[in-house]
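To close the chapter, one final illustration. This time we ask the reader to focus less on the individual chains and more on the assembly as a whole: which components sit near each other, and how the overall shape emerges from the parts.
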Amino acid sequence: AAKNGAGCSNSCLFQRHGFNFHSHPNSADVISTVEFSQSGEFLATGDKGGRVVIFQREPQGEYNVYSTFQSHDPEFDYLKSLEIEEKINKIRWLPQLHSALFLLTTNDKTIKLWKVSERDKQPEGYNLKDEEGRVKDISKITSLQVPVLRPMDLLVEASPRRVFSNAHAYHINSISINSDCETYLSADDLRINLWNLSITDRSFNIVDLKPDNMEDLTEVITVAEFHPHHCHLLAFSSSTGTTRLCDMRSRALCDQHAKLFEEAVDPASRSFFSELISSVSDVKFSHSGRYLLTRDYLSAKVWDLNMEKKPVETYQVHDYLRSKLCTLYESDCIFDKFECAWNGTDSVIMTGAYNNFFRMFDRASRRDVTLEASREVCKRRAVLRPRRVCIGRKRRESDICVDSLDFRKKVLHTAWHPTDNIIAIAARNNLYIFQDRHSPSGHHGVHRIEQETAPQLEDTPPQ
Amino acid sequence: MEYKVEAHRIMSISLGKIYNSRVQRGGIKLHKNLLVSLVLRSARQVYLSDYYAGVCLNAQHIEAKEWELMDADREKLIPASERHVGAEDGRASRLQEKDGDSLDPSDVAVTSPVSPAISETQCGSSDCETDADAAVTEGDSRQPPKDHACSHRKRSAEETGVSETPVKRTKVTPNAIVANNEIEEGEEMDTSNVSNLITIFGSGFSGLLSKDSAKSESETDDSDSGSGQICCEQMLKNLNPWTTAIVAF
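The assembled structure is written out below.
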């Protein structure tokens, strides 16, 4: 228990809750986004089929399915003869004010605000309709009664409260809720729009990278995010490897950046794919708001907002792939967009890799660990063993050679609980939730209820 | 020469990806296509620079000067150059199809003209002497000067000495090389086909997206995208060696 890999303050040892959605993987079940709620009590996943699954944390510490709903359906744009995918690109939670949950979900074109609420009472004793809802014959009604609320089985309902559509000509890649909790941004390849959560028929364009002549296109927006505390600041990254910080106070259209974070590329290391691998696939502000974490194909970088010239820390995620870029280009793997995450105290960063590996880097000690999210490897409640990728020959039995890596198994989406050492890892159609055995939060220690079988999605009601 | 093979391979892979992206569900992904076009451009740069270095050794220093000239007066030269480079020599022709017959060794395949200076330097080496000074100007009618300027603006970010003229692809086929090797001929054909396809894409990013009306909001050059599309379709039909590459993807 004492072995320290990631150097998380307590321990790097994690246990597993495996949720296998379907025994026969279907591409519609591929998880496309994972997000903890702001308190961490809930966890939402979106998949390629447009479905959203919400998990709730039980008092014992385990996450169980709370609600499932179809968020987006496939659409067809008749004007452009284009099919619009129903895949959920991003989910963002609003802070929870009362019992109902609110979250934003988006596909390529449309953003929706969902309300998820519990119902445990229903009205009975209507005057005009009977118990089945059929309208009564008015002439047969002889007396009036007041309907009363009676308890019923808990029902969790999801309803779309707002639909924000027709604002993006290109594919939406990000949504981010402002710290004011009234506005949010949505970003596509070329534009970022600002919305009010209550108003669906208009939005303000705040960034526009579209050149007058599309032939001059040199970069696209890859990710955008609001600062966690300053409601006027937002960051967006681009395919050229730059990240910009924009201040909405200085001008209405934030094409001019307040800060530009870019590291000069070593000309000696240039290859056909240099530009490609510098494209930023994820940007996350630290919880403190002081740092930015960016992920490009081979590395993760921590930037201090006060220093634009270069990152304060660079972590090589899988540099052994540098010599294999051509093969990865052929297989399209080089276009994989890995996300990254901060832990609650901003002391550890996490990101995914191939072979269902994910990596954690402790910023202070500079120690790192590679773990694997896989059914074969993880037995329930087992402690994860650190893995190692070797370039040459194996030195240890547990090592794996670069050439043996399975590039079809990729951990693109990862999320870290806002305060506790709980992480959610999406590996294709499986969601893995790992909890730190020695976490001080007290919610999970030795007194955990064993789960016999992994809950199937449709069958498990909220417990 | 390994670089050339590698670059060629990457170009063919890239073109295959672009082709496939048109039939992908969800519409063309702008980000991915932009990245692929960047790789294509890099590979093309290397391919062409390598070619020049390999074939016309004597002309190198002359070329370098010309490149500098080009660099300095890019914008001014382009419209003029397109007009100056006429069909100086009838021997030059663009290779459109692989017909399997042996090529006329002295054929010069040029897909688009760039500047009179450049085409002259092509024939600096003794091997090239017998070849045409000419540049074929078939590309002329298809490529308004605007494209050239656009390509240059696009590439201003990365300038190397040799790669100043993105749309230029002049290939000189020395007698010796072609006579020996049919596979070599095949490659020559492939390259010209690549070059033709590259011409379309070299005419600007919109060349890639001409089929997608979502991107054509600002397309001012309908003729270009139209011709690009036609050319692309022609090429795609006629590409024997290419169908393998494309089908593979």
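Residues 56-65, 74-198, 200-249 of chain B have pLDDT under 50 and may be disordered. The first strand of chain B starts at residue 108 and ends at 110. With these observations in hand, you are ready for the problems at the end of the chapter.
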